[in-house]
TrEMBL record:
Protein name: Large ribosomal subunit protein bL27
Any one cellular-component term (Gene Ontology): cytosolic large ribosomal subunit
Pfam families reported in the protein's UniProt record: Ribosomal_L27
Molecular function GO terms recorded: structural constituent of ribosome
Record GO biological process: translation
Family to which the UniProt record says this protein belongs: Belongs to the bacterial ribosomal protein bL27 family.
This protein's UniProt keywords: Ribonucleoprotein, Ribosomal protein
Statement: the UniProt record of this protein carries the keyword Ribosomal protein: yes
Lineage: Bacteria, Pseudomonadati, Bdellovibrionota, Bacteriovoracia, Bacteriovoracales
Amino acid sequence: MAHKKAAGSTANGRDSNPKMRGTKKYGGENVIPGNIIVRQKGTKLFPGTGVGMGRDFTIYALIPGKVKFSYYTKDKKLVSVVPA
């Protein structure tokens, strides 16, 4: 005989894993090549000088120096690494 749970507890038991996005190094912090500065979904922040962008939009340092956040246009932010 077929039975079905009444409260739907089996239908609700899923959740996605955390993605650990966000700013990892803030303005003025020292970085070395390869350090991740920002993990993001899409281009909320754009790469400037001294940084690269991975295919998952992760911005990382290419040169040693200090992190600098600035504006590219009025509504677009830019992340750069200024050599020390």
